[in-house]
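Supplementary Text 2. Reproducibility record for the structural model of the 208-residue chain.

All settings were left at their defaults, and a single model was retained for analysis rather than an ensemble. We include the record here because the model underlies the residue-level annotations in Supplementary Table 4.
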Amino acid sequence: MGLPSPTAVGTVQRDLQAWRNPATNEETAEMSNEPVPESAPSRCTTTGHSVVLTINGGSSSLKFAVFEAVLPPRRRLTGQVEGVGKPDGRLVIKTGAGENTLDQKISAATLLDAMRIVDHALGAQIERMPIIAIGHRVVHGGGRHHRPEPITPALLDSLRAIIPFAPNHLPGEIALIEACAQLDPNRLQVACFDTAFHHELPEVARIL
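Retained model, structure tokens:
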């Protein structure tokens, strides 16, 4: 699987605005359904030097990207951790243009260890550019969750309940969400569901 798209990153930014400036339920619904423009001036309420981190975790790997918190989002860095749970892991970070800025051997026994390593490495790579929100690619949201939404204890409970639908992916994705919460419990996290694509398909396409 790849990373959440810039459109999903734009949704994370709108959720951040709603999180910082609570609106009525109707206003929040309009914000979450509003399409992200292809080109628009920055509307982020934070400084122009803040960034959004997107994460896609697997059973033994962790892919990530850093986007400047403007609309449309500007990708600053991409990277991945390989070999989680193995002694010969590797961390690679590249610029938005694809140039290597870091390539080193690491040892990460768990996804939490990998996330700590990434968090530390990014701190050196994006100095004075705080990560204000994290977008997680989540494979399945069940029948209730299909649009990007802020991660809450209730949402985590829902995801745990549907682990049988995606046993190879959901446990690791939940572990990553929990790891990020341990690193910074006050940072907004947003789930972006793969099943959003299938939810919008016509019924005949879903059946066939």
